[in-house]
Description:
4 helices
Amino acid sequence: MIKxxxxxxxxxxxxxxxxxxxxxxxxxxxxxxxLGKLIDIPVNTGSLVRSRYTVPQKELSMSERKGNLKxxxxxxxxxxxxGRVLLIDxxxxxxxxxxxxxxxxxxxxxxxxxxxxxxxxQGI
Length: 124
């Protein structure tokens, strides 16, 4: 079904480099790479970065979450971005992370952003 959407690439929601170093991995990236292998769609881990270190969303109230991610993402290597992407995150609670990342990608020229999350968290 995803190929029917003509997805050009899969992009995982990035962690800030400090958080990735602490944790040792990015779960969204691991999910994206496995899905990419399964459905034969390339995974782009270099065109979206988390340029600002943020407090983990789970530690914030609903109202604090939106402001926490404002301008947290940056599109780089925009020549590698294509018309339609599948944005992957590990958990969807309020949608703020996916919204901010998608907004950044669209501002960089991506025409359509679809998203996939593996789990849904309960809002506060």
